[in-house]
């Protein structure tokens, strides 16, 4: 469980990127709502990654 907590940001970024690539391959990029979901996943993953890295750091 500690490993998952430590790497959840990278996992979310990977899922968001995969979903964005899948939508591009399926040619569904004209629906903005479907493009916002992967964007939110990537941004949340990035922020979680920074937050967990900062919490592990002594600074």
What secondary-structure arrangement, pairings included, does this model have?
Layout lengths: L1 H24 L6 H25 L3
Largest sheet: none
The structure class reads mainly alpha
Q: Quickly count the helices.
A: 2
User: What proportion of the residues form beta strands (DSSP E)?
Assistant: under 5%
The H-and-E topology, N to C, reads as: HH
Low-pLDDT windows of residues: none
Total E-strand runs: 0
- Quote the distance from N terminus to C terminus: 25 Å
Write up this protein.
By secondary structure, this protein is an all-alpha fold. 83% of the residues lie in helices and 0% in strands. The radius of gyration is 14 Å and the shape is elongated. The model has no long low-confidence stretch (mean pLDDT 91).
Concise structural overview:
The protein is an all-alpha fold.
Name the descriptors.
59 residues; mainly alpha; 2 helices; 83% helix; elongated
């Amino acid at each position: 469980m500690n490993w998952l907590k430590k790497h959840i940001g990278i996992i979310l970024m990977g899922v968001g990127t995969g979903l964005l690539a899948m939508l591009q391959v399926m040619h569904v990029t004209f629906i903005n709502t479907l493009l916002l979901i992967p964007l939110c996943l990537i941004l949340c993953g990035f922020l979680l990654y920074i937050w967990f890295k900062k919490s592990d750091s002594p600074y």
